[in-house]
Design brief:
Helix 3 packs across helix 9, helix 5 crosses helix 16 and helix 7 (116-126) runs antiparallel to helix 11. The termini are far apart. This protein has 16 helices and twelve strands. It has a single domain (2-375), classed as Orthogonal Bundle (Cytochrome p450), CATH 1.10.630.10. It is globular, with a radius of gyration of 21 Å. With 376 residues, it is α+β, with helices and mostly antiparallel strands. This is Cytochrome P450. Pfam families: p450. GO terms for molecular function: cholest-4-en-3-one 26-monooxygenase activity; heme binding; iron ion binding; steroid hydroxylase activity.
Length: 376
């Protein structure tokens, strides 16, 4: 436990981070918590309010109700159903990567593949036409600033404008799907929540909007970072790439070690539901703690020699969270990365990073890799 200058605590050990994520003594900072803060202005920003209504920022019983209604949206049957589409999307993106490599000898993997695969996959799942994908990526990148610990006024302004664009886009998408129902997930949500809130259509509309918006944008940056890092670690050493080609059954192990070694989310905040003790430190109700995912995964008590990238480590990480707020999209992110890496290893035996990835250094919470140049 490390005290922060603003009165919160950083939590660094694997055990303590896991305890916060799993225990009912810890809550996410919802609307009720925000209203109790001495200076609520920080939480009244448009973009912040928008995210506080999503699954990641609501607690029981509302969270329990929505999660039960969703079930497991990416169970094995769903993923198997998506397999042909994901394989087709990956193949098409790699065709574009190959063209760039042939023309220039070098290509940006993030812009050519990593950012496009998640948005095209979720677009396929929800029935969002490809012509809208670039706009979704644009406002998702800007809206994410609202989730930073200390966003600047400029960042909050960008996030606020992105929120307005997001509302307009998903509002129109839902209206169109109501008018023309299809055989898709969004149509199913509309039917379920309209029936659940039969006497309160505004409540139904809020839930449908927040679900559609959140599930669409939540995985875009994190999945892109996972995919970029996994490809980097798979290809940066020729011997490792060759070994993976000979042992494709260990691609899943590569993905898990990537998630442990360099997680796409650095920090997540929780608040104490009551007076409690964490790692020997007494904490009052409403105290904020910041879980440091990377520090937890590099705790040598959980993962010996944590700074060594070891595909066969069989270690542990909590990169997708744990407990009630475990990431809904984790199976899909793994699924996308597995398909992409398998095809890359097969099609590009000499693919190598041309240098380290470039990060958006203005972000402290959600890491964003802006570029990874590759050559073959």
């Amino acid at each position: 436990m490390v005290r922060a200058p603003w009165g919160a605590y950083f939590v660094t050990s694997f055990e303590a981070c896991s305890q916060v994520l799993r225990s009912r003594n810890w809550l996410v900072p919802d609307f009720a918590w925000q209203e109790r803060q001495p200076d609520p202005r920080r939480w009244q920003e448009l973009a912040t309010q928008e995210l506080t209504g999503t699954l990641s920022r609501i607690n029981a019983p509302s969270h329990t109700c929505q999660r039960r209604a969703l079930g497991n949206p990416f169970d094995r049957t769903t993923l198997e159903g998506l397999r042909p589409a994901v394989a087709r999307i990956v193949t098409g993106l790699l065709d574009g990567l190959e063209e760039r490599l042939r023309a220039d000898g070098e290509a940006d993997f993030v812009q050519t593949v990593a950012e496009l695969l998640p948005v095209r996959t979720v677009g396929e799942w929800l029935g969002i036409p490809e012509e809208h994908h670039a706009h979704i990526l644009d406002f998702a990148h800007r809206q994410a600033y609202a989730q930073e610990l200390f966003p600047t006024k400029e960042q909050l302004a960008q996030a606020g404008q992105a929120t307005l664009e997001m509302r307009a886009f998903f509002g129109e998408l839902i209206r169109e799907r109501r008018a023309r129902p299809g055989n898709d997930v969004l149509t199913g949500w509309i039917r379920h929540w309209d029936a659940h809130f039969a006497d309160d259509p505004e409540a139904a509309a809020r839930v449908i909007y927040h679900l559609t918006m959140f599930i669409t944008i939540a995985s875009l940056e994190t999945s892109a970072v996972l995919l970029t890092n996994a490809v980097r670690f798979a290809t940066e050493e020729p011997a490792r790439a060759e070994w993976l080609r000979a042992h494709p059954e260990h691609i899943d192990d590569l993905i898990e070690e990537t998630l442990r070694y360099d997680p796409p989310v650095w920090l997540n905040s929780h608040v104490a539901a009551d007076d409690t003790v964490l790692a020997g430190t007494p904490l009052a109700k409403d105290t904020t703690v910041h879980i440091l995912y990377g520090a937890a995964a590099h705790d040598p008590r959980r993962n010996p020699d944590p700074h060594v990238f070891d595909i066969l480590r069989d270690g542990g990480h909590i990169t997708f969270g744990s407990g009630a707020h475990y990431c809904l999209g984790a199976p899909l992110a793994r699924f996308e990365a597995r398909e992409a890496i398998a095809q890359i290893l097969e099609r590009f035996p000499t693919l190598r990073p041309a240098g380290p990835p470039a990060y958006d250094n203005s972000r402290l919470v959600f890491r964003r890799i802006t570029s990874l140049k590759v050559t073959a």
